Design the sequence.
């Protein structure tokens, strides 16, 4: 999607409605800086407010994603193209999130390994060794909930029994047995437990 084109379109539609950036932002419950970023092509409106934005501007979501008013004869083709593009962008974003999870894990586990090595190789009192290991493990303890949240939100888990792909609750992912990004989860469709692999696409 052409963010610059979409940004110019948002600005034109806003002006047609006689709204300033601040007035549009107030209607959406956001800052005028966010509107400015859209109109300069730096960012896209969040999906949670996209429908409200389109309603205010008097356009369809398809018009917004195309950066122009789409005629009836092109509507279906443009809508399908936009859906494919959105799915592709989500997959790319999910892939980046999963890479971030790996980096976060490595950065968090290195101090723990270093602390265990130091506590075992350097002569020190037992309480100091325990404190060293405790401090070394602390980044891992702090990072784990964030890493699990990233894994839960990015992509889908595929049921090994029926093939259904779903996004489970955070608590289910956090408490599940796992090997890498494969977790032992209950499928909401067939109700069976299986080792479910992380996949990036819905289909």
Sequence:
């Amino acid at each position: 999607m052409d963010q610059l084109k979409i940004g110019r379109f948002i600005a034109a539609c806003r002006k047609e409605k006689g709204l300033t950036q601040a007035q549009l932002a107030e209607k959406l419950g956001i800052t005028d800086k966010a509107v400015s970023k859209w109109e300069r092509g730096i960012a896209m409106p969040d999906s949670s407010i996209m429908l409200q934005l389109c309603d205010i501007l008097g356009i369809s979501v398809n018009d917004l994603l195309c950066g122009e008013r789409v005629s009836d004869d092109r509507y279906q083709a443009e809508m399908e193209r936009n859906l494919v593009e959105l799915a592709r962008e989500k997959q790319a974003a999910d892939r980046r999130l999963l890479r971030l999870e790996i980096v976060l894990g490595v950065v968090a586990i290195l101090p723990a390994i270093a602390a265990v090595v130091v506590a075992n190789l350097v002569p020190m009192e037992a309480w100091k060794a325990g404190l060293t290991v405790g401090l070394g493990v602390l980044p891992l303890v702090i990072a784990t909930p964030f890493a699990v949240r990233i894994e839960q939100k990015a992509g889908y888990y595929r049921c090994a029994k029926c093939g259904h792909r779903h996004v489970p609750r955070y608590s289910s992912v956090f408490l599940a047995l796992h090997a890498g990004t494969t977790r032992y989860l209950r499928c909401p469709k067939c109700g069976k437990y299986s080792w479910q692999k992380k996949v990036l696409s819905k289909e």
Remarks:
- The chain has eight helices and five strands.
